[in-house]
């Protein structure tokens, strides 16, 4: 199968680029899919694998005895371990601890351990815009009676509810899940109810875990945003014009947070 990130179509990461930037940023992200593996990306994937696929984690990841994954020692280790991702001892221990924390959690464990689909990919065509869309869902749990639970694993600084809420809106998690839910409903049928949950785990010890369901209000707002962004993509695709944030010159005003100067305070 072609690398998910290199397949043409609207993905959640591209929607986030549009949300935080402009159509120009979307086009750049689409034309330049993730290239290569960085240390942070490898650690992120290892954490996901330890949670979602612990058996594969045991075979596909191993401890590299060096301090940093670069240099001659690293090159030699890679050559002697084909098909295996190397993690530092600290990185491997962190992924293992995160996996155990999530899978043993009273609320998250049953969801993760009983999910029928892990890292599920699906491609569909949005009926309103005609755009080809892609998703790669962390987990899908079929619960019977035409109900599906769509879950996504997120590393967080803290499981404090307000912290998760702020991070979710800052990084566009509801938008991501709206995109995924559209794809899941396209796959299973509009008559299915698709509930959405974020499985949040602290990336630092003690790796506390929280399962946070996104309310109907949150999802309705996110789906409205998703539809607006899809309309922008469709229009830009049709015209071939992908503008940046500003189409005209801007004026800079005084920021509201700037303290008054001494001369200002005398007037």
Key terms for this structure?
267 residues, 2 domains, alpha/beta, two-stranded parallel ribbon, five-stranded mixed sheet, 47% helix, single chain, Lambda Exonuclease, Chain A
CATH class of the largest domain: Alpha Beta
Radius of gyration: 22 Å
Instruction: Assign a percent range to the helix content.
Output: 40-55%
- SS elements, strand count: 7
Distance between the termini: 69 Å
Task: For the largest sheet, list the strands in their spatial order.
Answer: 3-4-5-6-7
| Assembly classification | single chain
Structural class: alpha/beta
The name of the CATH architecture of the largest domain is: Alpha-Beta Complex
Average of the residue pLDDT scores? 92
Q: What is the number of independent domains?
A: 2
Shape: globular
Q: Spell the H/E element sequence.
A: HHHHEHEHHEEEHHEEHH
Strand content: 15-25%
């Amino acid at each position: 199968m072609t690398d998910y990130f290199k397949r043409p179509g609207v993905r959640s990461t591209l929607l986030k680029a549009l949300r935080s930037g402009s159509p120009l940023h979307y086009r750049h992200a689409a034309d330049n899919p993730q290239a290569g593996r960085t240390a942070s990306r490898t650690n992120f994937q290892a954490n996901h694998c330890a949670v979602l696929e612990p058996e594969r984690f045991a075979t596909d990841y191993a401890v590299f005895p060096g301090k940093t994954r670069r240099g001659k020692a690293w090159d030699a280790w890679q050559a002697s371990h084909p098909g295996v991702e190397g993690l530092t001892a600290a990185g491997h221990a962190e992924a293992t601890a995160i996996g155990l924390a999530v899978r043993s959690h009273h609320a998250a464990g049953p969801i993760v351990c009983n999910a029928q689909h892990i890292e599920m990919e699906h491609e569909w065509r949005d009926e309103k815009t005609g755009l080809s869309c892609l998703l790669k869902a962390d987990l899908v749990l079929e619960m019977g009676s035409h109900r599906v639970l769509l879950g996504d694993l997120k590393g967080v600084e803290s499981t404090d509810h307000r912290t998760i809420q702020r991070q979710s809106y800052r990084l566009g998690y509801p938008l991501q899940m709206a995109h995924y839910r559209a794809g899941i409903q396209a796959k299973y049928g509009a008559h299915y109810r698709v509930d959405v949950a974020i499985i949040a785990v602290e990336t630092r010890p003690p790796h506390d875990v929280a399962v946070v369901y996104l309310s109907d209000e949150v999802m309705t707002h996110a789906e409205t945003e998703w539809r607006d962004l899809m309309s922008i993509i469709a229009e830009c695709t049709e015209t071939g014009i992908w503008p940046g944030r500003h189409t005209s010159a801007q004026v800079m005003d005084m920021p509201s947070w700037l303290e008054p100067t001494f001369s200002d305070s005398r007037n």
